[in-house]
Amino acid sequence: MDLTRLRVLAAVAREGSVTAAARSLHYAQPSVSHHLARLEAEVGAPLLERHGRGVRLTAAGRLLAARAEEILGRVGAARDELDALVSLSAGRVRLAAFPSALATLVPDVVARLARDHPGLGVGLVEAEPPEALDALRRGAVDVALVFEHDRSPADVEGLRAVPVLAEELFLVRAADDGAGTGGAGPARATASDRLVDLAPLADAAWIAGCERCRADLVGRCERAGFTPRVAFETDDYVAVQSLVAAGVGVSLLPALALRAHRHPRVDAHALPGAARRVLAVTYGDRPSPGAAAVVDGLVDAAR
Which among 16, 31, 14 is positioned nearest to 69, based on CA atoms? Predict the structure, then answer.
């Protein structure tokens, strides 16, 4: 199967029509139709069927389009690896990471690469773990920095995952005296604040984050003997702390979120033995030199 034809099929699946696929690829529409017809002949099965005034993928088309994204991603990764094989003096490495990591670990890595390999470009994408891993599999990024909880492990099957950090979790609530612990965040909170149990907060209003963080929050509260009453949901750790400081709820936040931003009117209390794992994920057993340099930098920055 020709890679160009696979790229055309993937574009049709992604864009939803032949016309939109032609526009996104900068091809003439007859050229797209020709590639699809040739691909159907190679496969030996219809890939598109008429639907109203447009077309839609058949079951075979949907299957092949999904595989095409992965095939094209692998080919792109191979090209990047070959380009970077000789040295890290040129090329570009792309990193997808969740917001609190972009605000804490990633700047150190970018600065290190700029110092040690000034010819190597770095591209950054903000993405939650599922989106980051999807981009990695499609070849849109070279490294995905993700987190996982016990109840919601990251889907890294077929990928290479390197542990970066066991990130402490903290109960965040309004400061009793209105002043908060201040300072730079979790390191200071760990030293000065007591470890706490969640059970006394059974009647509190809770602020939950993303779907995976909410599942972890609910699981921890249930293990403490109650089901939390989730009053607000937001992925924005700055907004979470502002809501907590306003006295409308309590929440759980990881260490990187508190390091990235610490509201002066909240207290953070470390949860005993609670952590989420941060992983640097690459495609294949032997990542490109650029990707390997990013992973090494993330591990160093976490230390």
Answer: 14
Dist. CA 249–CA 206, nearest whole Å = 5
CA distance 55 to 95: 35
Q: How far apart are CA 163 and CA 151, in angstroms?
A: 17
Instruction: For the chain, give the secondary structure using H, E and C.
Output: CCHHHHHHHHHHHHHCCHHHHHHHHCCCHHHHHHHHHHHHHHHCCCCEEEECCEEEECHHHHHHHHHHHHHHHHHHHHHHHHHCCCCCCCCEEEEEECHHHHCCHHHHHHHHHHHHCCCCEEEEEECCHHHHHHHHHHCCCCEEEEEECCCCCCCCCCEEEEEEEEEEEEEEEECCCCCCCCCCCHHHHHHHCCCCCCHHHCCCEEEECCHHHHHHHHHHHHHCCCCCEEEEECCCHHHHHHHHHCCCCEEEEEHHHHHHCCCCCEEEEEEEEEEEEEEEEEECCCCCHHHHHHHHHHHHHHC
pLDDT tens digits for range 97-153: 999 999 999 999 999 999 988 888 899 999 999 999 999 998 899 999 999 998 788
pTM of the model: 0.67
Dist CA 51 CA 70 (whole Å): 27
CA distance 194 to 268: 9
pLDDT at 59: 93
- CA dist., res. 74 & res. 68, Å (int): 10
Distance separating alpha carbons of residues 144 and 279, to the nearest angstrom: 8
**What token pair was written down for 115?**
């110092």
